[in-house]
User: Which sequence fits this backbone?
């Protein structure tokens, strides 16, 4: 099987589809097992309600729950609605605990009730506890399927214990060493356990300086720990330092992606949603967009007042209006380039407050270079193609140059200042920078115009 | 140690610094070993050249190379320049192979020569082969430290082999099963190996349907495989299906972050660079920005021609110019919101070409809702605050509504069309959408003005 998954799916899903259409279920049962559970889920997602249930029921017990965890929320809901209580509790039993929590969080209330009825008292209590961890907290990412070792164990017995209990655990590559009160004492990689001589004590070979997170830690901080220390898993403790769960790298990859999406949306003045775009409702999408549009629209009206203030100038040299879009757009784009680079560098930890002057100095040089090039090009383009006076061309060119410099300086500085003020630097992205630069750019433009252009009836 | 790494570093690095200042090197040697290698590297990065070398030489052999791999390129260069040949070859010997390749790629040419002189003939050949894999290919991400098992081995002997060879391997959690000609035959997780009965044959317990990548596969496709199948490592084969290396999850996390950065920069019309912002040169930064600025500036001049075309209208009702910035900015922002959401959804695989009509329908409804609200708000604001006629207020309000609808439809559709045409959807981000929407918005504006406003001397 190859990286080009698209091709893979197109080639083989057709065969599976034929088997479904022709009701060759025993062949299908054989064939479908050859696929990874993620692909099985993709396949079932594309089927209609009845076919989906038939194919799901064909899956061997070992993979049914795994495949279920990868189904879309819609398909999960459909299947849960159709199965009887016995099937439901079998699915629930086989789901990994963190998948179970994710699944319950997405289900409508009437199904959550039915689901909780089908779990035993102890698990129900645990589920309720996990559902209480706030979104984006370390607690909400945890799983409880990990191997814990009492620190008094011998390597021999520990290996035996791992062998016996491992099939139920999500990861056994790191074991977590605890004392009698479940306080986290250390970790032991399976590698070290396998390599250790059999009669040593766990406490003597464990890693004592352990990285961990508290349940209330923010998921972005947790992700940063994984990135910095190349972790595969991280133990999570409660306020009394008792081990309550672990976070595994696959969930962290989702967090990294989620955080990048959040940044990207914020930079486009959209407030992020939890759902995928295609599933979000119209009113919700509208609400997430309108507030920033309104704020930016109102600030843009100030730019309008500047134009009104110079309406005498504009009335005498109406051609000036023709260059407003070009000046505004270029200023906005130049500012967006600088602010985006700096915002991303702040997020990745490459730029901090102490770099402020480095950033200003860099943006100043870059903007003079870029601004001068664009201004020169424009001066001659306007003069040659637009048949306007040299005074108008000069006004536009100088304004363009100053606009680019201003845009890049503001774009470079404002995100750093926002960060220093404990604001999210992403708000200082393109839309806000554009609005600010627009206003300054137009003031420069009309002021230069009154200086350079011989305006006939300014007083009139 | 806790998630809040900032606090951690500030608290303890001071102590280490004191030890360096007071030349208490034997205490320092003891203390520094308690830190993860990543923190040791951070600490050394902050020291000056001489102190850095002293502290680096204090590090025990087992962690020196690991810490070295995490140093900044500047500090690596400084240290390599100061050490003698013997030390150099010791560092090189202890580096993991993929770290060695990364390191050599960053070094200046004269140091690369010295480094290659200090590696043996066989490794030199291997290094040269790895340096040839193109950037962003699977080959460039590979490491050669993995456990390969011949398929005829018994579990007992395999476990023994893993125990003996594992200390040199980067990951032993997945073993790769090969035949005599090194063709990839299957994989075996350490978990399954540990859990298997000892007299079974590897070939009988291995996983046969193996996901793999070719050396020439793109790193983004490889990252998508890791994400979809929750992989920790992926084998890489050459064109003859022979196993040549593996890619581990820690390098994939860097790829995911790199690709997100690339997307973000492209969406702000900056061509991505390899280096960090703070290290990139002025001319390079200017070059990466000026091309798009130029393209966008030239397209914005067309908007200028539209204004020129309506200069008679503008001359009679000069107040119209005052609302141009607000209309342009709001149109640009509304388009940016839609295009950013859709571009990100395309990247994450949530939206594909078959969703085109769903996207159009969604954006249409959202834009009518958003556009109508903004238009209504503006109509009354203008009428009450700006003391203009109802005709001007109506023109502005209707234009605003139509602009928002147009912007959101274009912002939603163009990225999907770009993707279909095999272009990068990210080029259809804010800057280009803004320019396109601006032009249409102004045409609507002036056309509506001539329709609605009783313009006194249009013919004049």
Assistant:
């Amino acid at each position: 099987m190859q990286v080009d998954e698209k091709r893979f799916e197109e080639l083989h899903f057709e065969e599976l589809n034929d088997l479904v259409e022709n009701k060759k279920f025993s062949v299908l049962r054989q064939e479908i097992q050859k696929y990874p559970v993620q692909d099985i889920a993709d396949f079932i997602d594309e089927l209609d309600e009845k076919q989906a249930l038939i194919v799901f029921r064909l899956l061997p017990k070992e993979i049914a729950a795994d495949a279920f965890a990868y189904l879309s929320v819609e398909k999960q809901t459909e299947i849960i609605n159709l199965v009887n209580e016995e099937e439901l509790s079998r699915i629930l039993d086989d789901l990994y605990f963190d998948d179970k929590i994710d699944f319950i969080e997405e289900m409508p209330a009437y199904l959550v009730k039915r689901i909780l009825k089908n779990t035993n008292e102890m698990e129900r209590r645990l589920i309720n506890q996990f559902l209480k961890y706030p979104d984006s907290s370390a607690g909400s990412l945890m799983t409880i399927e990990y191997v814990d070792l009492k620190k008094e164990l011998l390597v021999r017995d520990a290996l035996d214990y791992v062998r016996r209990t491992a099939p139920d655990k999500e990861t056994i590559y790191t074991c977590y060493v605890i004392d009698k009160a479940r306080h986290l004492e250390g970790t032991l990689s399976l590698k070290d356990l396998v390599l250790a001589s059999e009669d040593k004590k766990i406490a003597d070979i464990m890693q004592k300086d352990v990285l961990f997170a508290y349940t209330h830690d923010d998921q972005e901080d947790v992700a940063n720990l994984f990135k910095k220390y190349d972790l595969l898993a991280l133990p999570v403790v409660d306020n009394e330092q008792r081990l309550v769960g672990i976070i595994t790298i696959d969930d962290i990859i989702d967090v990294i992606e989620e955080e990048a999406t959040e940044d990207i949306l914020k930079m486009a003045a959209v407030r992020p949603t939890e759902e995928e775009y295609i599933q979000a409702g119209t009113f919700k999408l509208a609400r997430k967009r309108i507030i920033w549009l309104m704020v930016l629209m109102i600030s843009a009206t100030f730019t309008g007042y500047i134009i009104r203030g110079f309406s005498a100038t504009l009335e005498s040299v109406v051609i000036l209006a023709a260059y407003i879009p070009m000046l505004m757009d270029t200023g906005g784009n130049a500012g967006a380039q600088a602010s985006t680079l700096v915002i991303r560098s702040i997020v990745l930890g490459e730029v901090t407050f102490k770099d402020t002057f480095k950033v200003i100095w860099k943006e100043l040089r870059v903007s003079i270079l870029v601004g001068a090039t664009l201004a020169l090009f424009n001066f001659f383009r306007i003069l040659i193609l637009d048949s306007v006076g040299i005074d108008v061309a000069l006004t536009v060119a100088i304004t363009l140059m100053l606009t680019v410099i201003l845009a890049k300086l503001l774009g470079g500085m404002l995100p750093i200042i926002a960060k220093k003020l404990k604001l999210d630097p992403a708000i200082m992205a393109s839309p806000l920078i554009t609005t600010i630069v627009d206003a300054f750019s137009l003031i420069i433009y009309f002021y230069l115009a009154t200086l350079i252009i011989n305006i006939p009836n300014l007083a009139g």
Q: What stands out?
A: The first strand of chain A starts at residue 147 and ends at 150. Chain A touches chain B through 122 residues (CB under 8 Å). Strands of chain A lie at 147-150, 174-178, 184-189, 213-214, 233-237, 243-248. Residues 1-9 of chain A have pLDDT under 50 and may be disordered.
